[in-house]
Please model this.
Amino acid sequence: MSGPNSEYDPVEVTPLRADEVEAMRDAAIAAVAEATDLESLKRIRLEHAGDRSPLALANREIGALPPQARKEAGQRVGQARGAVNQALARRQAVLEVEHEERILVEEAVDVTLPTDRRPRGSRHPVTTLSERIADIFVSMGWEIAEGPQAEAEWLNFDALNLGPDHPARTMQDTFWLAPSDAGLVLRTHTSPVQARTMLTREPPIYIACPGRVYRTDEVDATHSPVFHQVEGLVIDKGITMAHLKGTLDHLTAALFGEGITTRFRPSYFPFTEPSAEMDMVCFVCRGVDPEACRTCRGEGWIELGGCGVVNPRVLVACGVDPDIYTGFAFGFGIDRILMFRHNIEDLRDVFEGDVRFTSAFGVEI
Ligand code: FA5
Model:
């Protein structure tokens, strides 16, 4: 028979001796204090607080002790492990802050440094073409005039010999601005700038007015409800249709190259008399074998817009004496000119705002 179990003394189980537990705790806390970054702290955590750390192994020994010894040993190991965990948490917090600060310094981006990686934008070709057209007139000594896009009905129509009952008033489908009795429209053409100029200035007048205009036209390959026109107006003594023809010949040569023939076709506009549609010979096929030409589509000619000698009724309405002065005017679609110059088949491409379209034109200054 074996004798009675002797009293268990935890001092006899080496890993549970107070000095051993303290040594493990102190070694762990010292290692934690040594950790220089989060990576090394992770390693130290595994070594001193992980499942196979000395304190975890000591903890496992507790279960093997007789019940009366477990409490004290358990407290001792538990306190040591708690102290190590606290040291780990404190060091972790400090190292995380250091880490954040280091990242802010190391990964700082100097947003003021110059870079060539940003894709360059480009100006819209309608804008650059409008400016180019304006330059052509400025080089002839003309001035550039502007008017509002929300225009008085009277200036858009009545002053231009388009009275309320004039059948041609419906030629241009109009956006009327509310309230309905305000007498305001989105200008349907740039011609009201003519009237504004004559009403505010004495002749001689030589002006070009590029600008945006609006009509309730359905969108299709050649029409848009918002488009651009350039208006020209000359009022001076002795101005004739010949001056108009010479001016437009110069404009087409400057835009499309020398040797472009132009022609007038009889037309009707209430504000000019006589009136004409101005065509220029197709600058691609030059009228030779037009059947195969994609630009003029077999016509041999390209229509640029309307023109004529300013109707004396318009001169009178705008305070200019028709016995002293005569003048000519014209109005061309800038978007259509752009289409011809660059073989753009669909006007919608011009207005859809796709940068792949505008960037093809590059930056024109
Ligand atoms: C006029 O607007 C007259 N004010 C032009 C004028 C001025 C004649 C001075 C005589 C004297 P018309 O409605 O034809 O005319 O328009 C002129 C040009 O604008 C057309 O030739 C065409 O190039 C362009 N245009 C007209 N409607 C549209 C549209 N919906 N989308 C794009 N371009 C258009």
Observations:
- The beta strands are 143-144, 150-152, 184-186, 205-214, 226-236, 262-269, 272-281, 301-310, 326-333.
- The first helix runs from residue 18 to 34.
- Residues 172, 189, 191, 215, 217, 223-224, 227, 229, 231, 269, 271-272, 305-308, 329-333, 335-336 surround adenosine-5'-[phenylalaninyl-phosphate] (CB under 6 Å).
- The chain has a mean pLDDT of 90.
